[in-house]
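Minutes, project check-in
Item: structure for the 147-residue chain
Input as provided by the requester:
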Amino acid sequence: MTPTLPPSNPSSGAAFKVRLPGPAFRSSYVFGSGHGWIVAADEESNLQALNPLTGAQVDFPPVTGLYHVESCSDDQGRSAYNLRDDVMAPGARDVYTPLELRLYLYHRVYLSCSPSAGAECIVLLLHKHNGEMSFARVGDDMWTRIS
């Protein structure tokens, strides 16, 4: 009897090795997934979608495209972000490193469809500390605040 190998299908439980595009995905922080894509914030706190099976990657508007985030430098001249807000959460600061900002600001990301659909795909971003929402379409330069 000839042994049969499991099919090359993720639903079979088989382990797959996938080469992901740079920058290193290991340094990203995942905030959502949908339609076969993973949405994560990179080392500069910018959101990207990655399809782990195809290696396709889609950038969303930068974190500075949010109405209350602007780029600045910290006391040592390193890259940082100034967070302007009407109602700051208890213990909140004004200036964050990129790594701190992605953990403080982002709560969850939802995709309306696969980002491979281009501008048809709407990304909904939930902000962490005060429950605000913003959205963008693939290809937009800015996030639109939902009030």
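Outcome recorded: The mean pLDDT is 84.
No further action items on this chain.
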